[in-house]
Amino acid sequence: MEERLKYLFRKYLNNTCTKKEFDEFFMYMRDAAYNETIREIIKKVYEETGNESLKFTYVDESGKLVLTEPVLDTQPDYVPKRRKKALYLSAAACVAILVVLWVWWPITAPQAEAPVVAMAKKITQRSEYKYLLLPDSTQVWLNAASTLEYPQQFAGGKREVRLSGEAYFDVKHADKIPFIIRTGKVSTLVLGTAFNIKAYPGRAHIIVSVNRGKVVVQYNDKDVATLTKGQQVKVNNEGIQAPEKKSITTNAAAWQQGHLTFDDETIEDIVAELEQVYDVRIRVNDEAIRHTRISTTLRREMGVDEALQVLCLISDTEVIQENGVYIIQ
Predict the structure, then answer these.
(1) Residue 297 lies in domain
(2) How many domains is the chain built from?
(3) Using one digit for the tens of pLDDT, what is the confidence trace for 110-139?
(4) CA torsion sign, 139 to 165 to 121 to 157?
(5) What is the per-residue pLDDT across 68-95, written as a single tens digit (0 to 9) for each?
(6) Which of 14, 29, 98, 279 sits between 20 and 30 A of 232, alpha carbons compared?
(7) Top-confidence residue, 239 or 243
(8) What is residue 149's predicted lDDT score, i.e. its pLDDT?
(9) 192: nearest Cα among 209, 167, 175
(10) Which of 78, 108, 138 lies at the terminal end of a domain, its last residue?
(11) Same-domain pairing of 61 and 99
(12) First vs last Cα of the chain: how many Å apart?
């Protein structure tokens, strides 16, 4: 990387970067804002090559790149065309120096403000699933129709992410550096553990289930439950019900193995999940049916038609199709 940065920096100073090289150079500049290793390399490269910017750099009439020491002009009314180019290109070199100084100056200036940490956002569409490896080596499996936001580099003695939807986390243990998942008013705090969070927008509850380790669940920054292996808690999104904590016998993230597990959930919520899993539209017109609670496990591979038949058999309803929309009645 160091040799590549030297090459790109010299090309930038000489104003000979291609568009691709220019983009690559500033990618390193941006990365340096939150990566100390890259900052140190850039600082070293600057110290070794920055003095080149003191030379005039220009392209002569034949199109050849020329590096030369500045020559004092004894005729002030005459400014050669190539000197104008030299001044222009020197200004570009100064810009490069300022960029580099901006990147590594916070290392040496004790009163400098910390750089803004760049954020990453990963999104899954309906019927899409993703595996992510976070900067601290925490593993995340993101379920369908979900969003995870996290810094591209954890800093400040904490690791904090934001989740909308469902994800299974296998958190890399780090003493005294908590890992925090924020889902609206609910926060989940861990040091090193494996657990699942279901927090889809519009659902009445956020569900946290633990496979390994210990998890603290908070509502409005107040502890509401401490979970260990094989435990689960349902927290009402509006705080109008007490959290429901209980033991579970199934895998905390059964969806990873293709199981769709519903434990005392409303048909409305089950239907919303089936829509995400199969990327279809399902409508339930009757309010009483929407709020009917059932428990069941379906296999994702059975397909939406068979899944809805099982759901209707349990709830004593029926399903029809109109214009590509499934209707439960």
Answers:
(1) 258-329
(2) 3
(3) 544 555 678 899 999 998 999 999 999 999
(4) negative
(5) 333 333 344 444 444 444 444 444 444 4
(6) 279
(7) 243
(8) 96
(9) 175
(10) 108
(11) yes
(12) 63
